[in-house]
Write a sequence for this structure.
C-alpha cells in the first residue's frame, strides 16, 4: 500500500511540475528572455537596472527544488559566478552567492553579494526576486557590463539536502548569451494604432541545396504607396525547422523603376555570392537594385521582432508604381542535409505618421577577400582593423552631425572580440561599440545612449580572431567557415554615406609575402610579387597557404603585419558599393582613451 501511495505521490508531483503556465512578473521589467528555446515555460528571466549601479532580476522556473542562475566567462562551469536559491519544506527562502572553479559543486563565496527581495512557490514554479551591484569588487564575482555575457541556468526538482548540499542538475542546464545592459529593448511592441501598413514577403518552399554555404538573392514586389511611409518595426519570419539553416539576411528597398526593368516579374530568386548565378545577374537583373537602401540586417541569435526608437523611422518614398524589395539570404547547411525547403521571409510594419528623423544604416568593414583577411592556424588573437577617415565624415556629414543609437557587429566562427573607436581631433573619445566576448550565435543589436558624431570625426573598427582549434588557414569570404569583419551602425538623420573601409596597400601586401618567401616561411612562387601583380595571384597564393602546417613564427609574422600602422587604401562609399572615392592615407594615429581609475581600487 505504501509503495502504491508513493507511486501516486510521484505521479501527482510530476503532473504539478509539468504544468505549463505563464505567471506574470511581480512588476514591470525592461527586458526578459526564455532560457529554454524548446520550452518557453521552463525558465524565464526578467531584469532591469536600478539606481546606484544595481540590477534586479526575477526568475521563474518550473520546479519546486533549487534553481541556479549565473554568469560564465565562456558558457562553461569553471570560473562562473552563480547564485543558487530555493524554498525549503518549511517555507523558508534560501539564497547563496557561489562560484565554480571546475565542473564540480559551486563553492559558497565569503562575500554574499546577492540580495533576496522576495521568494515564493506557486503553481509548481519557484519564483525569486533578487538584486546585486553591477560591480561588487568581489574576486569571486563577475562584473555585469555593456557587452555580450554568457548566462547559465540550472535547476533541480528537489531542495538541497543541507544548507550547502545542492544535488547535481543533470540535464537541467541551459546557456544563453545576452546583453544585460542594452540601452533600449528593441522588441518593445508598437501600438497597432500607429501601424498603418504591413507588407509580408516570404520565399516559397525554396529547396536549400546540400552545400555548406548558400546565398539566395530574392526580389519581392511592393504595392504602390500613396504617401511617404516610415518603417518602424519588422519581424523576421523563420519556421522552427529552418532555425539551424538561416545564418543572416540583409533587406534592401530599391527604386520603383527596378520592378519595371524586370518586366513586372517579382518573387525572383537566384543563387548569388560564392557559386552564384552570374548569368541571372548579368541578363535578367542587369542594373536592377544597383541603387538600393539598406533597411536592416539580421543574423543568427538576433531578435526576430524588432522596432526602432520612437523618434526615428526608415523612409519609404511614395510612388504610383509598384516597388521592389531585395533580400540577400545566407543559409548555412554545414550538416549537408538534403531536401530541406524554406519559407523564411520578413514582415514590414510601417506608418504614414512620419517620425521626427529619417533613419539610416552605415557600415564599416574590412574587405571580404582572402588577402585582406588572412588568419594562420593555431593563432591567438590576430587583429584586423578598418578605418573610416575624417575626410569621409568631413565630406558627407551634415553640419549638425549624425546621431548613432545602435550597432551590430559581424564576424564568423573565429571572431572573438570587436571594438569601434570614436576619434575626434586626434584623441579617442570613447568606444562607440565594444564587445570583448563576441558570440557568433548571438548577433543582436547593441543599443547605446544616442551619441553625436561630428564632421571630421574618425572611426576605427577592430576585429579580433582566434584559430587555436584550426589546422589550416582561415580566409576572408562569405562562407560560415571563412571570415568577415564589420559593424552596422543605425543613426539619424539619414545621409548619402553608406559606409567606409580601408585595407593595407598592395605595395605593403606584396612586400609582406616576398619577405615570407625570403625567410622560407611559405613556398616560392613563380615570380616575385609587386603591387601590380599581388591581387592577380590571389588564387595561387591561397593554394600555397592551404598546404602549410601551423607555425608559431608564421602566426607572429601575420599578427605583426596586421598590427603595423602602415599606409592604407581607403574609401568612402556612397549610393552603391562601386561609387564614392578612394584614397591612400597613413594609418590614423590617435591619443588612446584614458581608462578610468580602477573602480575597486582602495587608493585615494
Amino acid at each position: 500500500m505504501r509503495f502504491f501511495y508513493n507511486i501516486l505521490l510521484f505521479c501527482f508531483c510530476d503532473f504539478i511540475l509539468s504544468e505549463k503556465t505563464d505567471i506574470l512578473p511581480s512588476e514591470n521589467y525592461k527586458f526578459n528572455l526564455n532560457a529554454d528555446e524548446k520550452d518557453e515555460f521552463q525558465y524565464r528571466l526578467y531584469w532591469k537596472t536600478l539606481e546606484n549601479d544595481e540590477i534586479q532580476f526575477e526568475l521563474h522556473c518550473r520546479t519546486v527544488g533549487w534553481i541556479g542562475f549565473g554568469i560564465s566567462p565562456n558558457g562553461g562551469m569553471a570560473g562562473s559566478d552563480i547564485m543558487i536559491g530555493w524554498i525549503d519544506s518549511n517555507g523558508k527562502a534560501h539564497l547563496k552567492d557561489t562560484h565554480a572553479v571546475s565542473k564540480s559543486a559551486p563553492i559558497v563565496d565569503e562575500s554574499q553579494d546577492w540580495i533576496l527581495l522576495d521568494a515564493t512557490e506557486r503553481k509548481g514554479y519557484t519564483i525569486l526576486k533578487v538584486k546585486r551591484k553591477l560591480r561588487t569588487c568581489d574576486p569571486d564575482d563577475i562584473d555585469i557590463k555593456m557587452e555580450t555575457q554568457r548566462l547559465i541556468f540550472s535547476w533541480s526538482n528537489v531542495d538541497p539536502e543541507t544548507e550547502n548540499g545542492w544535488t547535481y542538475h543533470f540535464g537541467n542546464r541551459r546557456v544563453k548569451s545576452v546583453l544585460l545592459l542594452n540601452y533600449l529593448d528593441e522588441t518593445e511592441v508598437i501600438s497597432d494604432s500607429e501601424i498603418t501598413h504591413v507588407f509580408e514577403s516570404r520565399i516559397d518552399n525554396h529547396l536549400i541545396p546540400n552545400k555548406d554555404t548558400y546565398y539566395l538573392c530574392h526580389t519581392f514586389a511592393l504595392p504602390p504607396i500613396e504617401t511617404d511611409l516610415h518603417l518602424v518595426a519588422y519581424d523576421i519570419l523563420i519556421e522552427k525547422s529552418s532555425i539551424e539553416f538561416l545564418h543572416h539576411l540583409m533587406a534592401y528597398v530599391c527604386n520603383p523603376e527596378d520592378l519595371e526593368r524586370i518586366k513586372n516579374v517579382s518573387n525572383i530568386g537566384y543563387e548569388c555570392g560564392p557559386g552564384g548565378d552570374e548569368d541571372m545577374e548579368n541578363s535578367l537583373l542587369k542594373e536592377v537594385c544597383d541603387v538600393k537602401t539598406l533597411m536592416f540586417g539580421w543574423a543568427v541569435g538576433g531578435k526576430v521582432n524588432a522596432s526602432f526608437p520612437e523618434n526615428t523611422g526608415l523612409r519609404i518614398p511614395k510612388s504610383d508604381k509598384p516597388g521592389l524589395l531585395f533580400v540577400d539570404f545566407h543559409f548555412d547547411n554545414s550538416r549537408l542535409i538534403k531536401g530541406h525547403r524554406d519559407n523564411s521571409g520578413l514582415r514590414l510594419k510601417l506608418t504614414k505618421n512620419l517620425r521626427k528623423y529619417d533613419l539610416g544604416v552605415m557600415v564599416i568593414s574590412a574587405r571580404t577577400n582572402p588577402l585582406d583577411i588572412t588568419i594562420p592556424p593555431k593563432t591567438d588573437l590576430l587583429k584586423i582593423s578598418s578605418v573610416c577617415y575624417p575626410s569621409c565624415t568631413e565630406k558627407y556629414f551634415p553640419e549638425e552631425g549624425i546621431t548613432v543609437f545602435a550597432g551590430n557587429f559581424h564576424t564568423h566562427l573565429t571572431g572573438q572580440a570587436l571594438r569601434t573607436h570614436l576619434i575626434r581631433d586626434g584623441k579617442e573619445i570613447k568606444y562607440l561599440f565594444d564587445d570583448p566576448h563576441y558570440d557568433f550565435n548571438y548577433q543582436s543589436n547593441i543599443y547605446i545612449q544616442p551619441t553625436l558624431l561630428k564632421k571630421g570625426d574618425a572611426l576605427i573598427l577592430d576585429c579580433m580572431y582566434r584559430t587555436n582549434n584550426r589546422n589550416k588557414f582561415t580566409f576572408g569570404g562569405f562562407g560560415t567557415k571563412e571570415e568577415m569583419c564589420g559593424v552596422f551602425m543605425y543613426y539619424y538623420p539619414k545621409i548619402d554615406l553608406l559606409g567606409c573601409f580601408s585595407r593595407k596597400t598592395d605595395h605593403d601586401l606584396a612586400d609582406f609575402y616576398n619577405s615570407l618567401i625570403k625567410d622560407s616561411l611559405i613556398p616560392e612562387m613563380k615570380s616575385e610579387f609587386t603591387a601590380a601583380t599581388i591581387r592577380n595571384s590571389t588564387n595561387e597564393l591561397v593554394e600555397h597557404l592551404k598546404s602549410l602546417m601551423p607555425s608559431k613564427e608564421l602566426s607572429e609574422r601575420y599578427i605583426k603585419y596586421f598590427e603595423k600602422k602602415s599606409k592604407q587604401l581607403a574609401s568612402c562609399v556612397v549610393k552603391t558599393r562601386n561609387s564614392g572615392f578612394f584614397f591612400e592615407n597613413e594609418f590614423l594615429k590617435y591619443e588612446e582613451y584614458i581608462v578610468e581609475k580602477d573602480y575597486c581600487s582602495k587608493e585615494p
